[in-house]
Amino acid sequence: MGKAATSQVRVTGLEARLIATAIKMKRSQGVGSVQGKVKRVLLRLTTDVGVEGIGEAAPWEVFSGTAEAALAALDLYLRPIVVGADPRRIQAVMAACDRALYENFEAKAAVEMALFDICGKLAGVPVSDLLGGAVRDRIPLSFSIANPDLDADVAMAKRLYGEGVRIFKVKTGFSDHANDMRRLAKLRQELSGDIDLRVDYNQGLQSWDALPKLREIEQFKPTFIEQPVPRPQLDVLAALTQALDTPVMADEAVFSPAEALRLVEKRAADIVSVKLMKAGGILNARKINAICEAAGVPCYGGTLWEGGVALAAGTHFIAATANMSLGCEFYMPKYVLEEDVLTAIVPIEDGHVVVPRGPGLGVTLDEDAVKRLTVEKRS
Ligand SMILES: [Mg+2]
Fold first, then answer.
1. Catalytic residue flag (residue 329)
2. Model-level pTM?
3. How many whole angstroms from 29 Cα to the centroid of ligand 1?
4. Fewer Cβ atoms within 10 Å of its own Cβ: the N or the C terminal residue of the chain?
5. 171 classed as catalytic
6. Which residues, at least 6 apart from 155, have a Cβ–Cβ distance to it below 8 Å?
C-alpha cells in the first residue's frame, strides 16, 4: 500500500497562472472573432504526498466568461475550499465550490481536472480508468474551418486530409448568407467526396429568417447544423429541428444538466455538443451526456479555447463515455496554438486523437514554456 491508501492526503497549495498563447491564423466564428493571442488559466495543485495535479480554464469572452475572471475565481473564491481538502473527494470538493461561487464553470472545470489528475496519479491509472474504463482508444478529430481567408482554409483542409482528418466543421454566420453559400460550395468542390462536412453558426442567425437560409445550406449535405440561433431561443431551435431534414446540434443552448433535460423534453435538437468548460467539469458533463443518451441524443466533444491540459481531460471523458460518439474538435494544440505548455501534446494520428495511457491526465508541463507564457501568477 502506498500513501494513496492512507487517510492523510491534503491539497497544500494552489497556483493559478494567466497565460497567453499566440495563434497561427485569424478565427471567425458566429458571434465572435479571435486573432493574435488567446488567454487561458493554468492551475497547479500540490499535495502533502508530493503528487501534483494540473488543470486549465479556457473561456471565450463572447461565449461564457473571461480568463481574467477564471483567474480571480480560482485565486480568491475557490482557493479556500480546495487548499486543505482531500483531493480524492472530488464530488464533495466540487459541491463545496458550487456553494461558494455561482457559475464560473471554467474555473470549476480546472479544479476538477486537477483533482482527477491527482487521483489518477495516486492510483497509478489514467483518468479514463477512474471513469469506468475506456470504451474507445482513439477519437475521430474534427477540424474547424474558421479562417476568413477561405483559400488558406482550403489549403489547410487538404493538408489535414492528407494526414487522415476526415471531419471538417465550417464556421458560418459571421458574415452574410451569400458568403456562407460560396464558402460551402467551394469546400464541397475542392475537397474529397468522402469528407464528413459539418456546419456551426455559433448563434449567428436571426430567428425570423433562419429557416429559409438553412434550407439552402442543406444542399451541401452537412452531417449536422450546429446552434443556428441565439442560446435563449430554445423554441426557435426546436422549430428548426422539426423543420429541417439535416440533424441540428445544440451547443450554446446546453451548459448544464437542467438545460439538457429541457432540451430533450422539447426535442429541441438531435445532437448535443458537450464541453467541459460549459459543464464545469467531467462529472457534470457525464450527467448531461446521460440525459441525452437516455433520450437517444448522441453527443459531440466541443471546445472553447483549450490547450493541451484541458483537452487531455476531455479526451479521457470521451474515451470513457460511449454516447460521446460524434468525434471531437481537440485540434488546437497541434494546429492552431503557436506554443502550448506541455512537454508533448496528446498525439493526433491518422485523423484521430489518441487517448493517453499514463497515470492521471497523462500529460506533463514544460516548465520553461509555462514561465515564458505566464502573464500573471497567483500563488
Ligand atoms: Mg459550437
1. yes
2. 0.95
3. 9
4. N
5. yes
6. none
